[in-house]
Amino acid sequence: MSSSYVLYGAGAVGGVVGARLHLAGHRVTLVARGEHLARIRARGLTLDTADGREVVRTDATDSAAEVDWRDGPVVLLAVKAHQTDAALADLMAHAPPSTAVVCLQNGVSNEPATLRRFARTYGITVMLPSEHLEPGLVVQGSHPVPGILDVGRYPTGTDALAEQVAADLRSAGFASVPRPDIMAWKHRKLVTNAVGDAGVVLPDASEELREALRAECEAVLAAAGAPLVTQEADRERRGDLLQVRADARGSNSLGQSLQRGTPGTEVDFRAGEIVLLGRRHGVPTPLNERVQRAAYERLRSTLT
Ligand SMILES: NC(=O)C1=CN([C@@H]2O[C@H](COP(=O)(O)OP(=O)(O)OC[C@H]3O[C@@H](n4cnc5c(N)ncnc54)[C@H](OP(=O)(O)O)[C@@H]3O)[C@@H](O)[C@H]2O)C=CC1
Ligand SMILES: CC(C)(CO)C(=O)C(=O)O
């Protein structure tokens, strides 16, 4: 049976997921903007995979005002975390209150922001190497399994909708299961991102520094009482499912934004989230602060 989805933020992650759901027979509306939206409207969205390129032609708009809400589409929110408030404001203005919103994003701040507005809030742990550097084009970085996208209700639990979303994602080729403790997985992903971002923005990101950063993140999350799956559980879930294409992977999503020269950065919701929690719970976070500051320095130099 086919379902209906709105991919709010059809960039690297939202574009790959939206294209694959469309190719699997689901109704998909893409929300994008600027030159990217113009290209999608004019020529379709190009999905680049290790098997070649496919052009996906489906509805595309820059506002929830133009989405057809009549068949109760599920929103997969795939903007960067610093863009979430603007996206939610648009959704609040135009989506029915009963809409289910699934945060297909890194970080742990999107779900509480969404729950303020939509009672049916869900989270997905996004393990999906992907790229969006050119308008109209998204690159699926892993093959043959494009990504692992486990899903759960926020703050905890699973339900029929989580099962449906996981089944639909599987129909589109992803690995996906419903998980009642989704935020414990997303906190682990937060640690992975803080450590990964050090490699992007710090010139001296040695193995030793990464390990110290990981320990700092874990100390903060423990002090905050945040649920966190172990690194072993995370490794076990990934197994060897993600086979990253050597030719496709430039940088992680933080690095790609810097490369594209987009204003703003998600770093405040990655290393910056650890900094916030550290300050709230009295744990020093010098390494995460370095990563956060270095990302802003890179942003400044990209924009000038
Ligand atoms: N890329 C990756 O490999 C991975 C990314 N993630 C996470 O997935 C999430 C999405 O990241 P990613 O796909 O890389 O981001 P992208 O920047 O590639 O995609 C987001 C898209 O949403 C658009 N957008 C943002 N706000 C709006 C708006 N209000 N209206 C219309 N369009 C909007 C952006 O446009 P514009 O460019 O103009 O801002 C962009 O095209 C992030 O949380 C990221 O950390 C997780 C795992 C891997
Ligand atoms: C871990 C990684 C690099 C890919 O899944 C990611 O989360 C990102 O690019 O932000």
Automatic annotation (TrEMBL):
**Boundaries of each Ketopantoate reductase N-terminal domain copy?**
7-141
Q: What is its EC number?
A: 1.1.1.169
Q: Which family does it belong to?
A: Belongs to the ketopantoate reductase family.
Q: What GO CC annotations are associated with the protein?
A: cytoplasm
Q: Which organism is it from?
A: Nocardioides anomalus
The protein here is known as 2-dehydropantoate 2-reductase
Annotated InterPro entries? 6-PGluconate_DH-like_C_sf, 6PGD_dom2, ApbA, Ketopantoate_reductase, KPA_reductase, KPR_N, NAD(P)-bd_dom_sf
Q: Name one GO biological process term.
A: pantothenate biosynthetic process
Q: Does the keyword Protein transport apply?
A: no
- Catalysed reaction equations from the record: (R)-pantoate + NADP(+) = 2-dehydropantoate + NADPH + H(+)
**Where does the Ketopantoate reductase C-terminal domain lie?**
182-293
Q: Which domain of life is it from?
A: Bacteria
What the entry lists under NCBIfam families is as follows: apbA_panE
Keywords of the record, alphabetical order, are:
NADP, Oxidoreductase, Pantothenate biosynthesis
Q: Which GO terms describe its molecular function?
A: 2-dehydropantoate 2-reductase activity; NADP binding
Q: Which Pfam families match?
A: ApbA, ApbA_C
Q: What does this protein do?
A: Catalyzes the NADPH-dependent reduction of ketopantoate into pantoic acid.
Pathway it belongs to?
Cofactor biosynthesis; (R)-pantothenate biosynthesis; (R)-pantoate from 3-methyl-2-oxobutanoate: step 2/2
